[in-house]
Every structure is written in structure tokens, then in C-alpha cells.
Amino acid sequence: MRIVIATDAWHPQVNGVVRSIEAMSAEARALGAEVEFLTPEGFPGVGLPTYPGIKLAYPTRRALARRLAALAPDHIHIATEGPVGLATRRHCRRAGLVFTTSYHTQFPDYLAARAPIPRALTFAALRWFHNAGAGTMVPTASVARELRRQGFSNIMRWTRGVDHHLFRPRPTSVLDLPRPIFLYVGRVAIEKNLEAFLGLEIPGSKVVAGDGPAREALEVRFPAATFLGMRTGEDLARIYASADVFVFPSRTDTFGIVLLEALASGLPVAAYPVPGPSDVIGDSEVGALDEDLARACRKALTLRRDKARAFALTFTWAESARQFLDNIVRARAGDRSSARIHHASSGIDQSI
Length: 352
Known about the structure:
Strand content: 15-25%
CATH class of the largest domain: Alpha Beta
Helix content: 25-40%
Distance between the termini: 6 Å
Strand order of the largest sheet: 2-1-5-6-7-8
Structural class: alpha/beta
Order of helices and strands: EHEEEHEHEHHEHEEHEHEHEHEHEHHHEE
Number of helices: 14
């Protein structure tokens, strides 16, 4: 089966959406599926000066149809609600094609942090977008419950994984800073609530690995913190393994791939008891969830690193890919609960 994933989030962006669909797709190919991407590349668009690396592309109806005809998909999955996603949705609706979508970002909270836009209005727009498809894939149970409350239909679970080989405990540190080292990794933007972390009165050092529109202002406000800028790959993995606690101050993330990367590196997590951290960590002994984030940080220092690593090993991209492909089977079969993917030595059953 050939699957096309339409996404506005793509390289050179470094974020959870890009990492998720790339890593999952690699495992889906290993299961026998063919996966191609429909991205802003090749379409006219504009870059956003306040968000380096992000380009909004605006596909014309004819250009999009030509691209999809060349890719010849058996199924289309729309990963984002941006211009590429909207154009692909319109194409599928006009052509009578079955498609699925995924919900990665809590846009109602994201937009409310920037402008006085009522959450109900944003949810109405998102409901219009996603309910046109045969299924909406979400990462956690709490997101599924929230979307059902908001009138979304055909909700499907699609978990995430982590690269256990890249993100692992290491014997030496690359951070020569006073201990304990509290680390944040991710986008440096208003919705990530970084002020809550950087303003804590806790011992040791605070480190931020990532970039974004809020970085310059935060560096001025919190000169004692260490800002490393964007880091990826082996460089990022060594930074994770060099810290003592991973701090996740966001209240709006739907999952947080960085949580799994930190845990796989042996880092206990400190976070608020909100959807995302609560779904991933729950009542396990690998993180401390508390409305008092400083108390969560101190508690996390007492947790065992080997337990964090063992917990992360239960999340794999292979399982993520199986869930993704199974959701497509169900969507295309009219959500018959008995429809399943059958694996054989040759890969996925060709009936999908």
C-alpha cells in the first residue's frame, strides 16, 4: 500500500511533528508500506521572519492534483492543518477520496497565548477540518477525551516512540556546569511556558537546548541560564545524558517526544500534572508531576535513572507504525473493529 502524508511541518523545521512522522514512516516501510511525503517543497510560499526555517506554501488546486497524481497514493493522511493540509483536504473532498488526519498541537491554547481568540472558535475550525476525514489520530487518552467533548468524531489512538540507541545513558558529560543540571529541550516560544522553569529557585544550573522567537528575550531576562541553541542528533543525545533532570514546563503539548528522549537517556522528568506528561508518565516512578514545579524538580532528583531508561524502552517506533497502519485499515474499512493488519514475512497483508 502506498501512503502519502501531507504535512506543512517539514525540514528544516526541527519539532515533534517532523520527528514523529519521519521515524514512524521508516518503521512503516519496514512493515511493507510505501510512504511518501507531500510537503511545502516545490510550492510557492513565504517564509516567516519571526519563525526561522518555517515556510508557508500555498499549493494551487492544479499543482496539488498533479503532485498527488504523480505519487499515486492508495491512501492520504493529512498530518497538519496548514495550507498544504487544507489544500489536500479540499482535493480529497472534491475527488471523493478517503483520508485520515492527525492532531498534534493544541491550537486553541496555542493561539490563545498569542491573541484573544476564543478557544471555542478555534475548536470549531479544527472540528470542521478533522471531521471531514475517516479518522483523526491522537497521541494520548486525554487528548482523545478532550476532542470528543468538543464534538470530534472517529478518534483513533496513535502513540509515539523513541530511538533507544541514539538516546541512551552515557558515561561522560559534555556539560561542565554546577550540579544538579536541569535541562529543557524544545522550541523556545511563549506557549512552552519557559518562564515557569527559568524563574524557579532551585540549586545548580538551568540549561535550554533549542531555538525560537522567545529566545532573545529570555536570555536577557534570565542571564544565569545557559542557552545552547538548536542541537540535533548525537550532539543533542549527549546533552540529554549529561543532565540530571528533564524539566517540561509546557501546559499545552499533546504528548512531548522530548519526554521519551529524556527518559531513554536516563533522565527523570519534572512537569506539571497536565495532559501530555500525565499521559506519558502517569503514576510511574520515572517523573514527578506537581503544580509546584520547583518541588517536582527536587523530587525528580531522587528518582532512579535506570527506571527512567527501562520505562522508555516500552515505547517503540515499530509499535507506533503498527498503530498508524492499523488505523488506516480501520478507516478504509468503515471503522470495522475487526479489521486488523496481518503481518507476514513479506510485510503487510496486501489487502490493505
